[in-house]
Every structure is written in C-alpha cells, then in structure tokens.
C-alpha cells in the first residue's frame, strides 16, 4: 500500500505545482504523513479548489473505523472536528450508503 500512497501523494503534489497555486508547501504539509492519504488543513484547502469534493458529518468515529478508513481510501480525504471531506464520488456514494449525512456535494 505504501507505494500506491506515495504515488498518489506525488501525483497530487505535482498537480498542485502544475496549476501554479501560490504555495510553497511540502508533501508533509499537505498530507498527514507519508503512509496515508489523509490531508492536513492546508492540503484540504487547496484540493477543495481543484477537485469536486463531498463533505460528510461524522459525529463520532471510532479508532477502529479510522484505521479501516486509512486502509480503504484510495484517494485523498480530510477528517477534522466531525467533518469528513472526500474527493472521490465512489467513496462519497459508499459513505452515503453507510448512512452518513452528506453536508455538501451532490451524489
């Protein structure tokens, strides 16, 4: 999984650079760490402007669910203060099927 995560991180980082976003962020400032596609706040802010995004309200997410989320996500996501932002329509559809309340985006 690590090679795939690294490839996605590099792709996103290059897409940000190619779109000439006025940012001097390093990959470590965009993603939580090199082993996950979970975004930090600055990374989320940039990706929301670049791609379609889907917000969900997740009141209480358990640690086991968080680990599953880390392992299953194939696209970047942002999780903070009960809000989950996804950048994949497929992932958003699965979340909606799972009963999570969509805050934005049309699925």
Percent helix: 40-55%
Discrete helix count = 5
The separation of the N and C termini measures 28 Å
Largest sheet: 4 strands, antiparallel
Number of domains: 1
- Structural class, from secondary structure content? alpha+beta
SSE order, as H and E?
HHHEHEEHE
Low-pLDDT runs of 5+ residues are none
The strand count comes to 4
Strand order of the largest sheet: 2-3-1-4
Mean pLDDT: 84
Give the amount of beta strand, in percent.
Answer: 5-15%
Q: What does the radius of gyration come to?
A: 13 Å
* Outline: globular
Keywords:
5 helices, 4-stranded antiparallel sheet
What does this structure look like?
The chain is of the alpha+beta class and 107 residues long. It has one domain. It contains five helices and four strands; from the N terminus they run H-H-H-E-H-E-E-H-E. Strands 2-3-1-4 form a four-stranded antiparallel sheet, with helices on one face. A hairpin with a 2-residue loop joins strand 2 and strand 3. It is globular and about 35 Å long. The chain starts with a helix and ends in a 5-residue tail after the last strand.
Give the arrangement of secondary structure elements.
Blueprint (H helix, E strand, L loop, with lengths): L1 H17 L8 H4 L10 H10 L3 E4 L5 H10 L4 E4 L2 E4 L2 H9 L3 E2 L5
Antiparallel strand pairs: 1-3, 1-4, 2-3
Short description:
With about 110 residues, this protein is of the alpha+beta class.
